[in-house]
Amino acid sequence: MKLKLNLGSAEASDDELPFAFMLITLMASCGISPYESFKRLRRVDLLPFIKKEAEEIVRSVEVLNKDPLTAMLHRADQSKSVTYGDFLTGYVSTVKSGGSVTSYLKSKLRSIFDVRAVAAVRSIERLETLVESYMVMLLVLLCVYILVAVMSSTTFNSTLRMGINGGQVMVYLILFVAMPMVSLVFMLIAQILRKGTLMNLKMIYFKALPFAVVGGGLFATLAFVPEVLTALTSITLSLQTTLNSVLPSLKIQTLVSNTVPFFVTMVLALISLVPTLSYKNVVGVNFKAEDAMPSFLRDVSETRKTGMSPEKSIVHSAGRKGYGSFSKILERIVNQIEWGVSLRKIYSDLQDWLKSWPVLTNFLILIETIEIGGGSPEALELLAGYSERIRDIEKNKREMLKPYVILPFIWTVLMALTFSFTFYVITQLPTAYPGGTGFPIMQGQMALFSSAIIFHSWVSGFFIGKITQGNFAAGFKYSLLLAVTAFVSLLLSQNVIDIVFGAL
């Protein structure tokens, strides 16, 4: 089973290099030259950039009969990664000068982790700017909507009853074209800037597909079969009556006129519900594994210092409490070791249970260290130390981005309140022509525009999921909550305006 990190080539190399350098350094500490390390790296699917580079270096040596150092210098000149090229150039220079290769590799490893820590801080700043820019763009579109609606207010009522004017076309463009396009553009930028640690999440997206297909069919039925809307309106009326009898203080009056938005909210919530639960299970295991893996490696390192074999050190360390849900994975590993299963086969099985790229890479490095050098305490100590640094960098990134989760809820409520107030004031919907032919048309427009606001809020959830956790699958939870928040905000704001208009 092959696992691939979903990154672009340049970004992939930068994210792979700390692990590749760590693996090469550990091999060097066990007496293996970097060229022999590259030969072993050809089978590491988790590091596609390094795997490709290793194949090129080995091909140059074994097929083209180049000297290994010459082949490395050639790849250093050809590589797009400045850090990787500098690593190869420095290694060749160290060998030619007779210096200590191990000391150079350890120094280079420390340097790249320092650089990655600084880069992580800069990436957080870029993401913060991206979220703030997204919010500003939405506020600008909201202001444009208000401006267009106010400028066309003198003819708005008549055009709603008789036809569509330029101002109304602009409202359609803002709600149905501009806002979705802004969200898609910012999601694309987030895809470039924010890289997650989880892989192979396609099954989570596929779980939303059946509900999306059914929802699309229901929307088509609702649009072309009027009897369905009549039935939904009847159901909504019964729900409104029930809510008012149970909670009379709420005085809900507009639920019936929001039948279509209510239906849209329910469909979007159902699309997000199953993937949300599935993603929660995945995150529960993998994020806990990312937190616990450095501690586990530290325990293995300390146990190995007592003279235990690498396999027994793993078994002993896995028995410690405090690993949470990751303990179940470790129990499975321990059982396989006791049954005599090889570490390679155990790792292959582990790929089916975990989706965290850092955890799988650390396990791979642990296995390589044991196979090439018997898992020396010094090598394991080095692995544990740098694993802790990787864990801290990613954990700090997620923690610093958590406060930005509140922003989409703020702009969702703001959009809903502003839209309801503007539409009601301009059209005077609660009091204007309640018995005339234009009244149902205005209610229909209100329902259509409200549905657009709800859908846009739902889409915004995927943007914030990508920002906070690095993948769009995390957005299913936020999209569900934002769709419900948008509907409730629209409903409450319309009820408040109904009460105010009714009192005048």
What is the tally of beta strands?
0
Low-pLDDT stretches are 1-11, 155-164, 430-438
- How can the largest sheet be summarized? none
Order of helices and strands: HHHHHHHHHHHHHHHHHHH
Chain-averaged pLDDT: 79
Give the amount of beta strand, in percent: under 5%
Overall structural class, as computed from helix and strand content, comes to mainly alpha
N/C terminus separation: 69 Å
Radius of gyration: 29 Å
Q: Work out the helicity level.
A: over 70%
H/I helix tally: 19
Please tell me the total number of domains: 3
Sum up the overall morphology in one term.
elongated
Defining key terms:
disordered N terminus, mainly alpha, 19 helices, 504 residues
Describe what this molecule looks like in 3D.
The protein has 504 residues and is mainly α. The chain folds into three domains: 9-99, no CATH class; 124-281 and 400-503, no CATH class; 286-395. It has 19 helices and no strands. The radius of gyration is 29 Å and the shape is elongated. It starts with 8 loop residues before the first helix and ends with a helix. The relative contact order is 0.11. Residues 1-11, 155-164 and 430-438 have low confidence and may be disordered.
How are the elements arranged and paired?
Elements: H1 9-29, H2 34-41, H3 48-62, H4 68-78, H5 82-97, H6 101-151, H7 153-162, H8 166-193, H9 202-224, H10 226-246, H11 259-304, H12 310-318, H13 326-338, H14 343-350, H15 357-373, H16 377-401, H17 406-427, H18 438-469, H19 475-503
Helix pairs in contact: 1-2, 1-6, 1-15, 1-16, 2-3, 3-4, 4-5, 5-6, 6-8, 6-16, 6-17, 7-18, 8-18, 9-10, 9-11, 11-12, 11-15, 11-16, 11-18, 11-19, 12-13, 14-15, 15-16, 17-18, 17-19, 18-19
